Amino acid sequence: MKLKIWQLIFIFCLLIAVLRYGLLAKIFMLFYYFSGSILAGNTMSLTSEISDSFISAFLIIILPSFVFLFRNKIRFLNYNPGLSLSVLLVLLLASVFAPLTASFNPEFQKNVAVTKLLHPFSVRYFITPAGKETSFYVSLRDEVTGNVTDEIQIADSLASGGGYYQGAEKILFEGSPADYNTSAVLYIFGTDELGRDIYSRLIYGTRISLTVGLTTVVLAFFIGLLLGFPAGYYEGWIGKVINRITDMFLSFPSIFLVILILALFGNSVITVIIVLGFTGWMSLFKIIRGEVKALKSRDFFMTASSLGLSSRNLIFREMLPVVIAPVTSNLVLLFAGVIVAEASLSYLGLGTGVTHPSWGSMIEQGQNYISKAWWMIIIPGIFLFTTLFAANNIGKKVQTYFNPGIR
Amino acid sequence: MIKAGSLIIKRIVNSFLLLFLLATFVFLLLRAAPGDPVSKYISPTLHPQLAENLRDSFGLNESALSQYIDFITETFTGNLGISFNYRVPVASVIMEFLPFTIMLALLSFSLQMMIAIYFSLKAAGKKGSKRDKFISETSLLIYALPSFFIGVLLIYLFSELAGIFPSSGVKSFSYDEMNILEKLADIIKHLILPLITLTVTGAAVMYRYLRTNMDEVFNSGYVMYLRSNGVGEKEIIRKHILPNSISPLIAVAGIELGILLSGTLITEVIFGLPGMGRLTMMAILQRDYPLVTGCALVSGVLIVMSNFIADLVKYKLDKRLLAKGILD
């Protein structure tokens, strides 16, 4: 059975919607309350977590219907993606719908003594008082964002006669057992040293990795284009100066440049993207410069430029479509390279890992618990490896597509 | 007629220009960065005059331009200044860390080359066979593994589970009590995991390059001619295909060697090794301005040098390349 891209997206969204229908319903309920209170004139704080849930809840309805309706109009949706692209697409979708696909808030931690360093597939019991005194809105909001830290108790196992164990300590319910809700929760990939769910952190980490990867590639491509075009087009001193500066960037190991800038100017997602973009454009520059140089003597380009087209038209109408083909495979490979770079930086403590869950920083934390918790390093490592392998494979495929001669 | 000699001189002049630009760039970055290197040594509760004195001794009170002129003249007369943190000349700090890195880099580099050439010969000998496919797939798999993950994985497998190799450092605690053979064995034991980490990814990259080039040469006319004349397949590969497909590899090898020589940061951090990579990173994190610039310059020199050597080797192999502007 060969899935098409639209079928893949459709099935994924449907699966998530069916599996998380309870959460989805709560998000819509919260949205109903929210818009009601806004209309009534009350200002409620719209945190990024809540808006994130809203967006993914609406998107999970809109996206499948969109791909279903337009499946015959957009050619891309009818491709057979193959294994590598499917893997990347599933990761992308999972990270876009992170509030729905993750089982916890990535920062959620409670009863660390009970939940820390759990094996994959461990089960723990969540115990909540049934009759809460908080308002309906607040409880809904807490459930949607996964920030239920006050009333919840996490138990190792349930005790007979109403109560639960936390470690060796047996705690009995106050009042009757009917006042408490108990639910078994599966930690599919285990937990880290602070009792945070590794699976959820991985999903949110995927988001960071893919965002950094994609935006950096776009940034690097534009820098390469902006510098490569004049360097190839004007062969006088401008081209020479730009080329010399590129050589300078190439002669410095870029990881040190990145560390230098990040250490001196602070690290956040934005600075990581900018710094990686500004250190990753050199290979693109070299290719684009070569292509533009070759392009200048081609008939159609000479005609276009002697017709007096503006340089913007020359770049976007005449040059870009020709240049983008040989660059595409490099863009995909750069994407893989950027993900490695981001993970390595997070591993060194200089990436996005300080404020967000990131694959690299997860492995770095895991290294401290290497003798106790193999899953803290192996599982993020497998995610990282799978992504990179898939991206490299796609890059290779694109390369063969454009130059069938080289195998 | 172009002369190789004059081109080499031109190239050296260009390299100096490059290093000058690099030094300027690092200088600008360090001075533009927020934060005061003095605050690391003088507590703000102490008298401000103390901080002022220290700043004077670091030469940070002069104007940026005079600092820059001082810096450039001193650097190019060979004086890299005194490290803020170690309180000894930068050159001697670097000389303490550089030999280790050079040893590790050269070891790993030669291993990479040997592995890449050996396996591509093995694989190309029976093109399309199971062995060929297995080697190529393995190289793709290794290529996709980030080096820090390989390192951590190796520590987990060989230090934690098997307990064969130590997980960090270059010497055991009992190093001083050992005799010479034990000392050697101890160091080798400590270096095996870092060497594997450094080598496998690079070897996979080089293998892929060599293999692609070999495939291109495989389909060329003269190979067909040799084959139709009844020359053995092994001899064709060894004597004709390998020499003709190696020159693009040398360019890559030059870059790889440069990166290795300037310090292999990630590996050094994972295994806690005293190399240039960690020194540079520490210098950056501690805002040790002279040491950062010194490390950057040394890395720059090593990278420029290894690229230059690679070009010379390429020229030695194929003198026609001179006309194509290889030494420009």
Beta-strand content of chain B:
under 5%
| Chain pair sharing the greatest interface | A-B, 39 and 50 residues
Taking the sheet with the most strands of chain B, its summary is: none
Task: Identify the overall geometry of chain A.
Answer: elongated
Give the uncertain stretches of chain A in residue-range form. none
What sort of overall outline of chain B do the alpha carbons produce when their principal axes are compared?
globular
Find the count of extended strands of chain B (DSSP E, 2+ residues): 0
What is the mean predicted local confidence, pLDDT of chain A?
84
Q: How many domains of chain B, as an integer? A: 1
How many domains of chain A, as an integer? 3
Major β-sheet of chain A, in short? 3 strands, antiparallel
Structural class assignment of chain B: mainly alpha
How far apart, in Å, are the first and last alpha carbons of chain B? 15 Å
Number of helix segments of chain B?
A: 13
CA-atom Rg of chain B in angstroms: 24 Å
Structural class call of chain A reads mainly alpha
How would you describe the overall organization of this protein?
The complex is a heterodimer of chains A (407) and B (328). Chain A has helices at residues 5-19, 21-39, 48-69, 82-96, 98-101, 112-115, 136-145, 198-233, 237-250, 254-265, 269-279, 282-295, 299-306, 311-347, 359-368, 375-402, and strands at residues 122-129, 153-155, 157-158, 163-166, 169-172, 180-187. Chain A is mainly α. Chain A has three domains: 5-101, no CATH class; 122-187, no CATH class; 199-406, MetI-like fold (Orthogonal Bundle), CATH 1.10.3720.10. In chain A, helix 13 crosses helix 14. The longest helix of chain A is centred in the last third of the chain and has 37 residues, at 311-347. Chain A starts with a helix and ends in a 5-residue tail after the last helix. The two termini of chain B are 15 Å apart. In chain B, helix 5 packs across helix 7, helix 7 (180-218) runs antiparallel to helix 10 (247-261) and helix 11 (265-271) crosses helix 12. Chain B is globular and about 85 Å long. The longest helix of chain B has 39 residues, at 180-218.
